[in-house]
Amino acid sequence: MAGADPGARIGELLDRLGREAGPGARETADELVRSVVEFYGEGLARTVRLLRSAPAGADPLSVLTADELVGDLLILHDLHPEDTMTRVGRALDKVRPYLGSHSGDVDIAGLDTETPEGPTLRLRLRGSCDGCPSSTQTVRWTIEEAVARLAPEIAHIEVEGVAEATPAEPPLLQIQPRPPDDAPGAAPEPVRSDAPAEPPRWHTLSGPVLPAHDRTTRVADIEGNELLLVRLPGNLYAYRDRCPGCGADLRTAPLDGEFLSCAACAARFDVRHAGRGERTHLEPLPLLEEDGAVRVALPELLGAGS
Predict the structure, then answer these.
(1) Rounded to the nearest 10 degrees, what angle do helices 68-76 and 23-53 cross at?
(2) Does pTM surpass 0.85?
(3) Phi, psi (degrees; rounded to nearest 5) at 32
(4) What is the pLDDT of residues 16-69, one digit of tens each?
(5) CA 284 to chain centroid
(6) How many C-beta atoms lie closer than 10 Å to residue 189's C-beta?
(7) DSSP-derived 3-state class of residue 232
(8) What share of the chain is helix, strand, coil (3-state, %, to 5)?
(9) How many CA atoms lie within 13 A of 65 on its CB side?
(10) Distance between CA 54 and CA 8 in Å, rounded?
């Protein structure tokens, strides 16, 4: 409505909803409107802060697109300078070092923009994921997170070529997008057809909890879950702090080059290659490291106290 007061129009629609659908629907609509206002308010606040603190001569659009929430708003309104496939490519570049640790890689097989639900991205995994089910699943979760953060307009992702998939583990992964975790009014975690009942939760780690130097380890506690973080030249890795052979914790395990040895049973695990051992694997966790921030996922299989 040209010339109409948007605020007044929203109020009219809320009143109408209350009359036609009842007070419960009106309360839900009020909460929805508040969440949307908070979401855009945070986006505007970040925009102001980013532009005020930008270095002299910096490209304003580059400064804004570097922020995830502001970048998502630009995507939503078709104002982002990069197209979908460019951002998908950047997302996959971020996860390739992690995929390499699982003896794999990923290629873009295509983008279908004609599906009713929204764009469907088709990816093809290459490599073995070390033939380990937990390794395969962490690769899937990591790809999902990276793409969702840089290309949230993608409605579905199909990942093909997962080696040694079992009948209980379909070869296609369905992924739903979601806004950044720190955005007001953020939607729940995505629902996937082949995921466990409880999808992984992503947590940001920083500061002294992270290994500061190459070939060092640290143990981080997140919601009662103990994670072993191992820093090797070029990459950071996260595993469950438990030896799969004897059940002992690994915080005192000596690190010999790229191999971790359990202090209790002497089992050795290849840290750089998904924790591969002679008979068992360490339990790898999805991890993304970018721009000084480290994000680790806690899947359902990593239950507190289990």
Answers:
(1) 120
(2) no
(3) -60, -45
(4) 888 888 888 889 998 999 999 999 999 999 999 999 999 999 999 999 998 888
(5) 15
(6) 17
(7) strand
(8) 35, 25, 45
(9) 18
(10) 36
